[in-house]
Amino acid sequence: MSICITNLQKEDAGRFSLRIGVDDYRENVTLSVTNRSSPLVYIEKGGEGCISFPQAEIRTTDRDILREERVLCMQFSGSIEIGLMLKGAWNRSFSCQSNTSHVSVCITNASKEDEGIFTYTLLSVPIDNRTLIITSPKLIITPKSPATVKEGQSLALTCHSTDSGGIYMFFTLDNKGNRIIFGIGGGSFKACSNETQLAFIECSFGDPWLFNLTLLKPIHNQEVYCSRQVGQEGWNTSTIIQVQRLATLSVIPASDVILNQTISLECFYANGQPGAAFSYGKRFCMFEYSSCTGCQLFASLECPNNQTYRISLTVDSSWHKITMYCEPPSVQSNTIIINVTIPVSGLVLTPSQLTVNRGETITLTCQTDYCNPSAKITWFKATSDVTSQATPTEDKNQEDLVRTTSVLRFTGVIGDNGQQVYCIASNTQGRSVESNRYTIDVKYISDVKILPGSMLRVVTEQSNVWIYCYTENPEDHAKYSWTKINSNNSTVVTTGQLYVIQTATIEDGGTYTCTASNSVGNSSGSVDVTVQYTPLASVLVHVDCRSTEAYILWTSPFTNSIGNIHHTLQLSENKNLFVNASFEKMNITDDIEINTYKVTNLKPGSVYIFRVLTSNHYGIALSNNHSCVTDPERMEDTSKGCPTEQIIGGTLGGAVFTTILLIVAYALCKCRKERKNEDRNKETLGR
Known about the structure:
The protein is mostly beta strands.
């Protein structure tokens, strides 16, 4: 029985009842009339939810939320919070909530009676509205999981909801998660459409709507979904297909096995069979129930009844990735692929001789045997992990086993000489193999050293100026050459370790590079030679002041040519004015480069600064300054004789200083003589 209305108005909304007799009301239906532009809000029957509105931009006036023209929540002027909730405006429990972005009316345990229009007003003027729809999302698919069907037969599935309406769809998912649609039905036009030849759909639009899907070729363990979409809301339910095979093969404990593990293959025939046949790879094995014999390759056979046939075997590497199944004459079971874990057992590092010149790059290769799964190779140099510098690759053989090859490019550096290189491979937890360890032999020529140093300053006309080079390792057996680099020109000046400039000129200045070479490479070092017109400065070594005299120890530069060099001792009683000093020469050796001067007629208790001025006809050079303080003048006691202690002390003090002066002068003299001898030896070598 139906009531039909044309030109529907909002006033037509209300509750309609079916009555049989005077007081027997059988069914109640609520009619809601909504504005088509009013957004729909769905809350599941028995669930909870909120009807929310965006906060009004204008907040300087009062705002309200109404249901069916009755105010539920109030916001006062200037506030975004709910200022008042009118409980009596709706005959059900509800709450008003707000935050910075939305204002809401929320309910729990929703029922069909809660449906209606909610309006958000500004000074009683509607600015937004929502229509609440209570849905019944209970979606039912039968048969439930597992949906059992015998092999070779079709399977019928039924889907419906306790609440009619919406669009229904049957589908499944492929291994990439994409939908494969079987059929679609429902909607405003009550359509019913097949989407594939694998199934067909039938639709019944009674109360409730029923949708029947028949799968022509059910797939074992396939999950089939039924979905229902109403507006923006949607629900899914599913069932998993269980195909009962006439013959079923199973592996005990599992198809993922370890090399040399013992497993059992069991074939079950639902209708019973007088015998069984196992197929594995390209091999075939049969045995009969009556005698339970055959398949001699296997460890044991069991035939507990004419439905179950069982064999046991020990897995070797040839079983990896083989396809197995069992069959009677007319029916084949499911197939199982055996996955055998084969630990890596061999690892080879090549080459075995790791000899490399410094700066040269060689390739090291570490390779496993064939295994499963693929092995990870880790490289070590001494105790350092250098795997990040290696490049791994993989290849497979006909049995689908994997071999890993890792290549490490190694550049010889001196610091790696004598280090060990090796690699480790592993493809199962707690188990690994290690390659042989080989020692790196880096061939190189050691660094070049320069004498007298990296910088040399000389003056013009200085004679026998020498520079000498050598390598740190006497086993280098190197050949040497000196090259002078000046501006953009370079000239080989000698082919030996020693180079001597007989008489220095300005043109001899520049950078001199010594290159040492042998069969494994080159090494070089440089010295900057500066030739100047002005003389080199002398050096004050020590100054000691007494009461009226001072002793000065100084050295002049080693030049081997001093004919035009002059030295003048100068002193100052202040920091600015220096005058030439009179002195007495006290040299204890004939070495003209070590000098000891005695200066007299000094003032007691005064500060003196000494220096040596070295000059030639090109200019002058000043030594370092050295200062001292003369002793205060002693006052003699006329009433007593001179104390013996002072006499002894003064005598001893002078003796001690003289001794120290002699020792220092002797040491400097000896050093100078050794240097001259070394110069003569190198000059002899150069000749």
